[in-house]
Fold these 3 entries.
Entry 1:
Amino acid sequence: MSLNDWKLVNSQTISRHPVFCLRNDRYRLEPDTDEKEFVVLESTDWINVVPVTENNEVVLVRQFRHGVRTVSLEVPGGMMERDEDATKAARRELKEETGFVAENLTLLGSVWPNPAIQDNRCHCFLASPVHKVAEPEPDLWERIDVVLVPLKAIPDMIRNGSIQHSLVLVSFALMGVVGSSKT
């Protein structure tokens, strides 16, 4: 028996939506199991940007999230456009959502948001230092408040539940901020 004994029998797109496609994969676990269906969300890759000012403040955004039906405090981020490079997407999302631009952009790492049901990656960047050059230009269906928070306050905000978005937590963890109160 091996962890790689999965045999793809059939794959079919069930429905297409602006943000993702829903796919149904049918597998058999070799050598002799029945077939089983697994649902997969196909999506383009995402980016998250942790923007830090010269004054060691993190530029965060507050926005309504339909999945949890409430406002979430997050770092700027979003979906990469077709054939868009992750770094270019990070710069674009940062400026669109906050009006800030970065002198330096460093890839912190890339993660699978939920490999059990999704096929995409989230690329996490550190942008530092950032400077405001314009007003935010969110998409038509976005309402965003820009908030500056001292970097040293982030660990407490994570612990007290002010920041709960798992991919935002991953971005801070890749920065080495999570688990430390001495930022």
Note: Residues 7 and 133 are 52 Å apart (CA to CA).
Entry 2:
Amino acid sequence: MNEEIKLHEVKGYYQGTTNITHLSLVYSLKNRKFIKGYVDGSSAHGCIHYRLFPGRYIWIGYDYWSKADPPSKIEVTLFSIEEDGKKKDLKSVYIQFYNYEFLTQFPPQIMDVFHARPGYHRKPSLHTLFSKQYSEQDHERLINLLNSSKNYKEGEEHE
């Protein structure tokens, strides 16, 4: 008996409006790169459709809301896609910041998501992001960030 492994759909999204910016992407643990998704939507907002095999992945999401303090946040979440297609979050780390220079202490995947974010009524810049494979050292830094289980906020002390 040869069972066929099914692909399961997961949706990310983007938004680039006056007070809100959002981008969510899926990173492959196996291939050390962002998974290319099908982008569907307008210049202001839309979906990124992923077809994933069962396994573990990392979700990296950027959020900006002008009324938040600090206004920018990046969420890094380890998740799994189960055989039945259900998405299960396993652990998360949050990075809240005012200035992008704060991100230089984190793995380059974080800064790359920040730079790919959509602008005002513009789609995110994803072409170069989807074609970039990260070094094993950068990949390991991302895993260590998740394993630290710390949340980071610009202006707070961390040991």
Note: The chain has one domain: 8-146.
Entry 3:
Amino acid sequence: MPTWGPAGFRLSPSSTASYGYLLGGQAKSWEYTQINPVVPAYVFAWESDTGRMKIGDGVSDWNTLPYYTIPMPYGSCYGLNIGFTKTSMVQNTWYDVLDSDIQSGSIQFTSHSQGLISYPTPGHYHVSFQISMECNANNKHIEVGIKKTGTVVDNARVIYETKTANSQFSVSGASIVSIVSGGTINISVRTTDTGTPNIIVYNTNLTSVYLGL
């Protein structure tokens, strides 16, 4: 049976070479598995050789307890046949693709509204996007990017040149984006040419996964 010692929790009375101090993390994974102690309730126990951790419940033995994982924030949204239209686009002016038909996808510790995802948790996120649209003019450069809290991220922009007018095309891209607490992301589009073309957006997909601080 595991016992408490002066420095913490010991895996077993015979475990003298390596105490399983659950607050000190001095037990290796094979020691926990071999001795298989019942970890006291609310005690944090981690493996010194792997860094993985379990939290005791006072009943389950080590081999039964699941490893503890920290829930990570993520967020996604998508629009199918949304018919978002932007007419007379001004050269080098960004237009946000926000529409009530854009729906929430998988959401955890984030929130979504009409194509705008909000982040309470700051950190670096892997963000990817896909958008399908058409333009009413040929040979127009249409640029798509990720807008972070109102500003398009330089390393998250993709340019497509329309081949023919009124033909549907798709653009996709991805980037690692640093987001502050309370920050937002959304898809934004613009034309880098003169001529004030029109675009119609049919489908969108925006996905983000937390990577760490």
Note: The radius of gyration is 26 Å.
